[in-house]
Amino acid sequence: MSAVPVASLTKEQQDELLCTYAALILHDDGAEISAQAMASLIKASGCNVEGYWPMLMAKMVSNVGMDALIKMGSGAGGGGAAAGPAAGAAGEAPAAGGAAGGAAEKKKVEEEEEEEEMD
Questions:
Q1: CA 115, CA 102: separation in Å to the nearest integer?
Q2: Statement: residue 98 has pLDDT above 60
Q3: Dihedrals φ, ψ of 87, to 5°?
């Protein structure tokens, strides 16, 4: 979403982005990532989101873990498909072509090389 102007995002996408940034700020500060903390931070920034977004994001962070979500979203470069914030925010699957996609490609190439060696 960083290549897209915020004004062209839907309200839902803007809300998700705000919650993602709030979660990242709280994580960076070492603070608890709770729905209340996220809502307070978003309100203090002069923005507002639908009430379910902070709860949804906080639950996802508590279930998956912020470090794991950050790793899911870091594709190590490339112009992959748009990953949800905070890498798969709102329960969406992470975009293909990230680090896991590269590992799968490498494994496939290795398997093909082994097959060629057997022939």
A1: 20
A2: no
A3: 55, 80
- Residues in Cβ contact with 119 at an 8 Å cutoff, skipping those fewer than 6 apart: none
The pLDDT tens digits of the residues spanning 8-31 come to: 999 999 999 999 999 999 999 999
Give dist(CA 19, CA 14) in Å, integer: 9
Q: Are 17 and 3 in contact (CB under 8 A)?
A: no
User: 């748009």: which residue's tokens?
Assistant: 82
Q: What is the CA radius of gyration of the chain?
A: 18
Query: Containing H/E element for 90?
Result: none
* Per-residue pLDDT at 28: 93
Q: Which residue shows structure tokens 């996609």?
A: 101
Joined together, the tokens standing for residue 47 give: 């923005």
Q: Give, to the nearest 10 degrees, the angle between helix 11-29 and helix 35-44.
A: 110
Q: How many whole angstroms separate alpha carbon 9 and alpha carbon 37?
A: 24
**Mean pLDDT computed over every residue of the chain:** 76
Which of 1, 5, 3 minimizes the C-alpha distance to 19? 1
Task: Please give the pLDDT value at position 60.
Answer: 94
